[in-house]
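Incident review: delayed structure delivery

Summary: a single-chain prediction request sat in the queue longer than the usual turnaround. Root cause was a stuck worker, restarted by the on-call engineer. No data loss occurred. The affected request and its eventual output are reproduced below so the record is complete for anyone auditing the incident later.

Affected input:
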Amino acid sequence: MTEQAPALLLTMSDVAALARVQRPVVSVWRSRAADSDSPFPAPVTRLRGRELFDARQVGQWLAETHRGNNPEASADAAAHAVLNDETRAAEQSFSAVTALLALRSVTGGPLGALSARDLLDAADEHDPDDALFYREVEGLGDGLVSLAGYVDDLVEASYGEAAAFERLMADRFKRDLRDLSDTALSNPALDLIAETAAALAATQPGDPVFVDAMGSASDTILAIARAESTSGDVTVITANADNEAARLLRRRLLVHRITRAGLEVHESGAFTVTGTAVHLAQFPSANHPAISATAILTAIDQIVLQMDNDQLGVILAPASVLTDAGLPRDTDGLRSTILRSGRVRAIVRLPAGVIRHKPQQSQALWVLGAAHAHVQLAERWTMVADLTATALEPTVIADLVSDLIATLGDRGTVRAHAFRFARFVLTRTLLASRDSLVAGARRAEPGRTTQGAALAVRVDDLLTMLNTETDAASGLAGLVAEPTVPTDQRDSTLPAQAGSAGTQTVEQLLAAKHLRYVQGNRLDPEDIARGETDAAGIRLIGPAEVLGENPLGRRRIDRLRFAADYPAGRVTEPGDLVFTTAPHPAAIVDREGTSVVLFPARILRINPEDPNGLLGEVVAADIAALPPGHRRWQRWPLRQVHHRQSRALADALASVRLEQERAHERLAHLDELAALLMAGVTAGSLTVSQTAGPQISHAFAPLEGTN
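Output delivered after worker restart:
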């Protein structure tokens, strides 16, 4: 009896990809061909609300009607289709197809011409220990031959077993394969891990060796192998585990012809690797998706314990485990133990979106290396970086990898490297802190790297120009800016000068009570009045005012209504910062106070008794400089001013603000003058003449033809 070929299904998007057209084109084909002699094939089923079509029918329809841009659509249909196997679960079908792909790659020829017995004999011959695919092939039973024919079609349409395998791996995101896709990384994250691991391996002698003790880093290892494709032979050491993730990894390596060696991992998690190697680990992993924070750190500790000074490592795990505060005491103690080993050379908090199916979860990266052998324990350092608000673009990845490699060097190497993202922190400081391990890590800003002398020259040029242009006495006339002399160049007989007071996050400043957070008010839209900026009532400040879309004072609320209807309502105090997070971070300083802040705008209030170097204008500028995606306001970094310069900077900024107000007033007058000139001349009520300067006079006679 001939087995029936398994059904292959296409979504509308799959049809568009097969035909090499845009998705809306397929909808047009369906509607236009509905009443023709060759109607578009009808859907055969639905999955989660999406229509699915028979791939062979669609391929034949495209070939007969000559639609689309793929003349080989009928032959390529299998490469774009999803296998509809009603006899087994999606995971079983996926495993079975990948197993047959691995078998086909080692037999070196098509499988469809073989009988079921021949296929089982081939599987037993090439996988006698059942480490790769024998049980999956045997488990197909009566469907073995028909599925082997499908695999042949898939390989022919994909131009090889490796390409077919990767098509299936890409399709796991649109199938119901949660175990395989829940921990999958985004493409930028894979690029970061691959480039970091490859760069680490490049610092070691010999061909690169990568170790996956968890036995599930399939995507990561393949990305590394691609990055290392021109660097010689790559050897991968993976765990000899018997779970599905480990077997899938071994099949994938086999199909891609990547050299693999086995690794025995004991039940305790202990293992042994000798020689140069780069360890790779991602948590949670495909074989342990629900692993706890303590289990993650225990597994990392096993890696650290077996490492020698010739081995390096790259660890990816949730930021809540690797960097953030708030771990239980025992778990935090375990993390501290790992840090004390001296092998954690770099700590990076990554932006959200690293995990495909958990776009809001933040991940972190650890780079492991040899401890500083010739540095006292109290003087050992770790490099930290916070990329929470930085997209993983190619240039960012390249610069971050450069920073990470530099962290492996000695003190001289670290000082010689121009770090873009990383910051030098004593490890003992990290251990003593109760905050995030990357708290206060400064983000790169081009302006901050400018030398003080160059800044002073430019400031002096601007002051000279502005004071020359101002007719009246300017508040900038007495302002002087000089470069700060570095500590190691300062004459000890001179008084000490102020330097930088550093950077802290909003979260840190709130905890230390240097800042206070005040929620915005939720008002009935009917209570909001709109009018002139000097109208009666209490001024409202919402996101539109903060973003500059509405002038301050245009929206107000009646004082009596606010007091009666909103007894718990809150108003600002002079100097409060009103901020918003969407569509991008922005803030303004409410210098007058007594304004009603309209939610989702909110208030940050600097403690006047203990500001700790915070200035409203500096805070507002720092918030405005943040990228659009940085909505977690608690992690916003804010610059602080040294206490010796705080008053002077505040006075200088007040003078600048006064000049800005004068300039805006003058600009408004100039705008009004231009409008009046145009209105008067076009109406015939003004004549304008030019002598030594503009001269304006009334028209004494009406224009000809008027009364």
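Verification: The chain has 25 helices and 25 strands.
Action items: add queue-age alerting; document worker restart procedure.
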